[in-house]
Specification:
alpha+beta; two-stranded antiparallel ribbon; about 40% helix; elongated
């Protein structure tokens, strides 16, 4: 009987302690409970769920919390969802959101195999980050693309691939969400987010080389030599020259393309424009028009 009694009291005490602990834990949980706005879950569901970090937060959950908790969300933007997603979220929250033009990743290097001769061979890990930490690269240009494809491996949207013929990465504008992952992954900083532009038209300097002109020309046939002709030609003051390198401000550029015509190395490129008419055709058309005008004038005089 004594053993049974001891066993019974042991069970009763343990059960009692369990109940007391449960009550204490309940009140502690209620005391330190953190309230979470239920709208956060709803906003997170409205976001694309890419968790790419392009918005500046570790994932879509962090972005959703910021959108709900901040009264002013003008500085917050989801590049993957774009304007339509942000507008829908703003309407749901009853807040105003800033409209932003669509962006796209741009590879600012024209140093293909043809334009940039190889002077040595890297025999280490096929990683741009590793190669950049060891030396300048396989060519005479220490600023250009290393061609190991770090940018392609971090893209969650299959929007950037290495071209085996040129050795350079190419961006698929239809897939690119401008999340900026490739920009962060490039140790040479040749990838930039720029406005897509009206009808996908853009003009930019396809080079980041800051060496002096003679050094750049020797290293790459299409590098910017810092001659300044584009700066003098631009009627909108959209081009600046710093550290032997020209840069076109997309906010000021009016796409007149005068800079493209005067660049001696072809470092300034135009994207999305219709093909230019050959100069011979233009000259022939002008000659034909002059001949026609002269003929009409002769007929009137007669």
């Amino acid at each position: 009987m004594d053993g049974t009694l001891i066993y019974t009291w042991t069970v009763v005490i343990l059960v009692g302690l369990g109940l007391v602990a449960a009550v204490v834990l309940y009140f502690v949980a209620q005391k330190f409970k953190v309230y979470e706005d239920p709208r956060i879950d709803q906003v997170e569901a409205m976001l694309p769920g890419a968790n790419c970090g392009g918005c500046g937060f570790p994932g879509c959950r962090g972005m959703a919390e910021a959108l709900v908790k901040n009264d002013d969300i003008a500085s917050l933007y989801c590049p993957v969802g774009g304007a339509s997603t942000m507008q829908a979220i703003a309407e749901f929250l009853g807040k105003a959101v800033a409209e932003k033009e669509p962006m796209v990743a741009v590879v600012r290097c024209g140093g293909t195999f043809c334009n940039r001769a190889r002077i040595n061979t890297f025999d280490g890990a096929r990683s741009c980050a590793v190669e950049a930490s060891l030396y300048g690269g396989e060519t005479g240009c220490t600023f250009g693309c290393l061609g190991n494809g770090d940018c392609t491996r971090v893209c969650n949207f299959d929007a950037i691939h290495m071209n085996p013929e040129t050795g350079l990465p190419e961006v698929d504008e239809e897939k690119c969400t401008a999340c900026g992952a490739c920009v962060k992954a490039c140790p040479k900083h040749i990838i930039e987010l720029r406005k897509k532009g009206l009808k996908g038209r853009r003009v930019y300097v396809n080079c980041v080389n800051q060496d002096k002109g003679a050094v750049t020309r020797k290293a790459c046939a299409v590098g910017c030599i810092g001659c300044g002709k584009c700066v003098k030609t631009c009627p909108f003051e959209a081009i600046t020259l710093e550290n032997n390198l020209a840069y076109i401000d997309p906010a000021k550029c009016r796409l007149c393309r005068k800079c493209v015509a005067v660049c001696p190395t072809g470092a300034i490129v135009e994207v999305g424009f219709p093909a230019r008419k050959p100069e011979t055709d233009t000259a022939a058309a002008a000659t034909t028009q002059e001949t026609k005008t002269a003929a009409e004038g002769g007929e009137q005089h007669a």
